[in-house]
Amino acid sequence: MDKASQTRAAQLLHHRSAGLKKGDPVSLPIVPAATFHLPEVAGASHIYGRNGMTTWEAVEDQLALLEDAPCVSFPSGMAAISAALMATLKVGAKLIIPADGYYVTRVLSEGFLAPFGVEVVQIATADYASFDFSGAAVVYLETPSNPGLDVVDIAAISLRAHATGAVVIVDNTTMTPLLQRPLDLGADLVVAADTKAPAGHSDVLFGHVAGRDAGLMARVRDWRRLSGAVPGPFEAWQVHRGIETLELRLQRMCASAGVIAERLLAHRAVANLRYPGLASDPSHVISKTQMTGFGFLIGFELEDEARAERFLTECPYIVQSTSFGGTHSSGERRARWGDRVSPGFIRLSVGIEPFEPLWAAMEAALKR
């Protein structure tokens, strides 16, 4: 992790310190208020819970430090994605989305946006580099893609998309702003599911949209207020607490993932392994130019569905879960959700377990 990321991590731990008065709690208070004292509206800091409340504003301050941009928080990653798309699309607009990205984004686009008159075009992540974006209103990309871990050059795509008049939205969930900074690379908006690594403990849903275009962010904020897609104060407090250890957790997760990826690559039971940090990975060259770390996700294939399921069942230190980025290592056979991967494909999210016991358990399960 580079020096700038370390500085941001230090700042977010103390982002409330300057405003503390004598006797104030150091930890963030939970303020579960829907209504506020309003003898008159003018000058009121808060009006109604759907417009804003102090606990989730504190999380937005943290995220703004990480993104170096204004942030709007949401009750889930999909709520954030929906807001970004609703803020930038209209009837007749063309939307480019990854055919191999998070499947719920495709379901939302085809099931709801297309019937409302949006032209939805799906392309593989690897094809973004050569695709003609002419006529597109929004170019939405996910890099690394989930679950295949293909990577696209954000700066190059942003330049080409902007030349045709498109808005660029990047889903940065797999990397977090500590490992990859799409706004610095030219993206207009970033969306992320803070449910994953930022919150980190697999116990809360949360998301955010970040951007430096005041007009776009005003639209995103209006969508939250008018749709009612607002986070709760307790959930915001959970995320605020989780973000304080994000940099520390990422260090171990990424370090372990790098070594595990090398060992899996050499294992005779494993095929088609993907991890951007490996010099042999097709995405490695691009990843080095736009990431400060290679993440904690690894994709690989075992021979068939039965062997993949058996590996996941017999490894005691891998939780079988459909999310990623938590303290526990987790794994999932992604074909069960209809992702365009082989039946034996596993998406592995490396957690914070001590490395040697984790690898020993994985190796034993692979042998069996």
CATH class of the largest domain: Alpha Beta
Q: Biggest sheet, open or closed, and with what strands and sense?
A: 7 strands, mixed
What is the CATH topology classification name of the largest domain? Aspartate Aminotransferase, domain 2
Mean pLDDT over all positions? 96
Number of domains: 2
Write the layout of secondary structure elements.
Blueprint: H1 3-13, H2 54-67, E1 71-74, H3 77-88, E2 94-98, H4 103-113, E3 119-123, E4 138-142, H5 154-163, E5 167-171, E6 189-193, E7 207-211, H6 214-227, H7 233-243, H8 246-265, E8 271-274, H9 284-290, E9 297-301, H10 305-314, E10 319-320, E11 330-333, E12 345-349, H11 355-367
Helix pairs in contact: 1-2, 2-7, 3-6
Outline of this structure?
The chain has 368 residues and is an alpha/beta fold. The chain folds into two domains: 3-243, Type I PLP-dependent aspartate aminotransferase-like (Major domain) (Aspartate Aminotransferase, domain 2, 3-Layer(aba) Sandwich); 247-367, Aspartate Aminotransferase, domain 1. The protein has helices spanning 3-13, 54-67, 77-88, 103-113, 154-163, 214-227, 233-243, 246-265, 284-290, 305-314, 355-367, and strands spanning 71-74, 94-98, 119-123, 138-142, 167-171, 189-193, 207-211, 271-274, 297-301, 319-320, 330-333, 345-349.
